[in-house]
Amino acid sequence: SPAGLQNDHKALMKQVEEALHQLHAREKEKHAKDEAEALAEAMSQNQSLPQAFAKVNAVTPGSPASISGLQVDDEIVEFGSVNINNFQNLQNIAAVVQHSEGRPLSVTVIRSGKKVHVGLTPKHWAGKGLLG
To answer: Which family does it belong to (predicted)?
Structure first.
């Protein structure tokens, strides 16, 4: 009978609707869990990065710093033997540069949230200083 078919259709549509609600609820839970895991991973990566003690605010084109690949906004975490534990002021860096003229220095920076190693050789060039 038409009334029986209509009731069957309503019951079937109700089952489909409930199944869709359950499916979307599971997807929402999965998405929230994935977001939480991604956030936790990002936080743990940030915590594993060493602390910077200086930030590069200028790099002169053609200078030893530029040739080495040092970039503006790089955050210095290690400059030769200088790191966050023994850094007091920029004189520490100047001393390392003077004693390393013509010899490569290992410089570690944080660039865009990643640790990057740069080989920098302080030397005389057309501009001022040994780094630029």
So the answer is: Belongs to the proteasome subunit p27 family.
